[in-house]
């Protein structure tokens, strides 16, 4: 599946299913204000303290797109919640906006160290509140798209390269050669296929890991050669078989 198809599928899912915001605040009036502001665009989950919020996050981590967190709460306060949130790397892409009426630089530093993304002042400034939430949500989507891009790039790379040596595989080699021939139609090229003489003896005498290390060394030499030539394609086909295609000057 191409990257465009992945993006289109993700956008379709996002369009069909609304994003979820978890509001964590012991004051019901604050939760009602946030629910009123957000319910048009998001589904809402509510928690009265950090412990309840933590249980909800464990159960609904895949659905929750954002957390708005009060700091001063009974049972488990906001800092306690952030410590548990920060300790779980699976939650690091869920943005946490800290809602507070205090402007304490030390508390702010602590929150940022524990993974908070931004702060929302109390009492709420509704236009600014919407702007902060929109900004955090946009960052989340950018992070998601970046993760999809990285996953796609890794998939493409693994499909085109040998996992042992990191060299192009047969499929990638053929494509690289076709591209090289098309770009240099008047050039003459030579193709060389070679293997390692008595390679089985290396495996049997020095262990398979030593044999793999030797193959990686051959790959290193081919990379060194390739870096010094303009028209040079090479690959690890299988076992101890390598192939090179380069310009023929003589």
Total of helices: 9
The overall strand count is: 8
Q: What distance lies between the first and last C-alpha atoms, to the nearest angstrom?
A: 44 Å
If you compute it from the alpha carbons, what radius of gyration comes out, rounded to the nearest whole angstrom? 28 Å
Envelope shape = elongated
Give the fraction of residues assigned to helices: 40-55%
Q: Name the average pLDDT.
A: 86
**Roughly what fraction of the amino acids lie in strands?**
15-25%
Give the low-pLDDT segments: 9-15
Describe this structure in words.
It is a single chain. The chain is an alpha/beta fold and 250 residues long. It is built from nine helices and eight strands. The strands form two sheets. It has a five-stranded parallel beta sheet with strand order 2-1-3-4-5, sandwiched between helices. Strands 6-8-7 form a three-stranded antiparallel beta sheet, sandwiched between helices. β4 (96-100), α5 (105-113) and β5 form a beta-alpha-beta unit. α3 packs parallel to α4 (78-86) and α8 (199-206) crosses α9 (208-227). The model is unreliable at 9-15 (pLDDT under 50).
Structure described in brief:
By secondary structure, the chain is α/β, with parallel strands linked by helices.
Write the SSE topology:
Blueprint: H1 3-16, E1 20-24, H2 28-38, E2 43-47, H3 50-60, E3 64-70, H4 78-86, E4 96-100, H5 105-113, E5 118-121, H6 126-160, H7 170-183, E6 189-195, H8 199-206, H9 208-227, E7 232-238, E8 241-247
Parallel strand pairs: 1-2, 1-3, 3-4, 4-5
Antiparallel strand pairs: 6-8, 7-8
Helix pairs in contact: 3-4, 8-9
């Amino acid at each position: 599946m191409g990257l465009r198809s992945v993006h289109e599928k993700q956008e379709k899912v996002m369009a069909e299913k609304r994003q979820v915001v978890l509001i964590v605040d012991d004051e019901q009036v604050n939760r009602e204000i946030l629910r009123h502001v957000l319910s048009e665009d998001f589904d809402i989950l509510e928690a009265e303290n950090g412990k309840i919020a933590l249980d909800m996050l464990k159960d609904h981590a895949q659905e929750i797109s954002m957390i708005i967190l009060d700091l001063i709460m009974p049972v488990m306060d906001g800092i306690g919640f952030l410590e548990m949130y920060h300790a779980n790397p699976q939650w690091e892409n869920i943005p946490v906006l800290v809602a507070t009426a205090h402007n304490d630089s030390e508390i702010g530093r602590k929150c940022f160290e524990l993974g908070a993304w931004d702060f929302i002042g109390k009492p709420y400034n509704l236009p600014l509140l919407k702007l902060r939430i929109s900004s955090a949500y946009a960052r989340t989507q950018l992070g998601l798209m970046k993760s999809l891009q990285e996953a796609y790039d890794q998939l493409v790379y693994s499909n085109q390269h040998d996992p042992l040596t990191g060299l192009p595989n047969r499929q990638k080699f053929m494509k690289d050669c076709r591209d090289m021939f098309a770009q240099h139609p008047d050039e003459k090229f030579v193709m060389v296929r070679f293997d390692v003489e008595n390679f089985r003896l290396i495996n049997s005498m020095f262990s398979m890991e030593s044999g793999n290390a030797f193959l990686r060394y051959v790959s290193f030499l081919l990379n060194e050669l390739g870096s010094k030539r303009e028209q040079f394609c090479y690959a690890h086909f299988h076992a101890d078989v390598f192939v090179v295609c380069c310009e023929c000057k003589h």
